[in-house]
Write a structure and sequence with these properties.
elongated
Length: about 70
């Protein structure tokens, strides 16, 4: 897959965790950034599908609990 360089700014704590993970696994940081974004977008797409199946609206947590008897 073709790649495209980008420039981003991330929190220092996340940067340190990413650096440590990259160093320990001998993988590039871009690998983990790509995987994280891929997972995020997959979950966002799943959420959109679920939302559209419910008629485009979400249910407040308290209402969902009542419906489920929780």
């Amino acid at each position: 897959m073709p790649t495209k360089p980008i420039s981003i700014t991330i929190d220092e704590e996340i940067s340190e965790k990413l650096e440590k993970l990259s160093s320990e696994t001998h993988r590039k940081k871009s690998y983990y950034v790509n995987e994280a974004l891929r997972t995020y977008f997959d979950e966002l797409e799943d959420y959109d599908i679920a939302l559209s199946r419910r008629g485009g609206k979400s249910t407040p947590l308290e209402d969902a609990k009542k419906e489920l008897g929780i």
